[in-house]
Amino acid sequence: MSSIWPAITSGPSPDFHCEPGPQQPPPPKESRLRKVLPAALTTPHENIYTIPNLLTVSRLIAAPFVGYCILHGYHGWALGLFAYAGVTDLLDGWIARKWNLGTVVGTIIDPLADKTLMTVLTVTLAMQGSLPVWLAVIILGRDVGLGISAIYYRWISLPPPKTFSRYWDFSLPSAEVRPTTISKYNTALQLGLMGLTTLAPVVPLDLATSLTVMQYVVATTTIWSGASYVYSKDAVKILSQPKEGDGDKPQ
């Protein structure tokens, strides 16, 4: 037994060699960068410094001057600035469509400029006694409600990280506002009423009857348009943000 045991134990040990499995290809460089870079650097930005947006901003700047002129009796200047706002409102939209310069921020600041001008005109004309207080309350109440809604949708649609500075960075598109049809008509009627009210002290005509009729029409369309944003599914569109890893998928 002793002569056999060494022969058995001293034999070559079996070779348990394991074949390596298939090698996984290294992740793409872009994928590694997406994991390293913060979301703030990978979120797409858009060019907001376009001619239509600059024209819109000029309307925003002109709005308080219109109010100042109304309160201090400079009706000619107020009417001229109001006309400038109307022309640029038409011009910026035409340029954006003609040369494909539309931006997401433009869909926000364009109605914002209209509402700023409308708010200034409503407040100052009501203070002057040219506009009924009850109509001013309806117009301003609707705009306050829409403003609160805009703040809410901007916050919930902002891509992470949600910070105060990124909230006010309008080159980060997050939500798109689409005015309803009745809202467009209402804006035109409101501006028409404000323009006619601003014009009344300048022309030697009695516009009292026309103004009264327009006031009731505007009150109706204002309430109707406010309700349309509540019941319309297409008024606000949340822009989809790329999820983590979406950039690695083949197109």
UniProtKB/TrEMBL annotation:
GO terms for molecular function: cardiolipin synthase (CMP-forming). Transmembrane segments: none annotated. Pfam families: CDP-OH_P_transf (PF01066). One of its GO terms (cellular component) is membrane. Keywords: Lipid biosynthesis, Lipid metabolism, Membrane, Phospholipid biosynthesis, Phospholipid metabolism, Transferase, Transmembrane, Transmembrane helix. InterPro entries: CDP-alcohol_PTase-I, CDP-OH_P_trans, CDP-OH_PTrfase_TM_dom, CDP_ALCOHOL_P_TRANSF_CS. Its main location: membrane. It is found in: Membrane. Belongs to the CDP-alcohol phosphatidyltransferase class-I family. This is Cardiolipin synthase-like protein. It comes from Coniochaeta hoffmannii.
